[in-house]
Amino acid sequence: MNGFLEAVVGFFAAIIGSMGLGGGGVLLMYISAFTSTDQLKAQGINLLFFLPIGVVSVFFHIKNRLINKKAALFTILTAVPGAVLGSFLSGAVDQNLLRKALAIFLFILGAREFVSSFKKQQKRS
Hints:
mainly alpha; 86% helix
């Protein structure tokens, strides 16, 4: 039954992720909260889950000429060193601290999105 539940969560996270709605966040929260997987392994699983979706998305965005090359270059040049630095730092930080930091970050991000969507809705009215 546990494998079935994980397949269902993975399926819906893939659908949400393919729509650009943060399916990786859903998957990471599920893995962190409902399994005994440590934080680094959960983040690795999430990354492996994201890579095929990201490759397909980039392919279609290039095909449809939707990529701003200057912005993409800037993002690559800053994200790659940041990811490398983050991976080294995550190995040096306590797992419980990482879990709490992720939970706080996701809460703040969700609250910010909720408030900004509420403000946009008020401007339309």
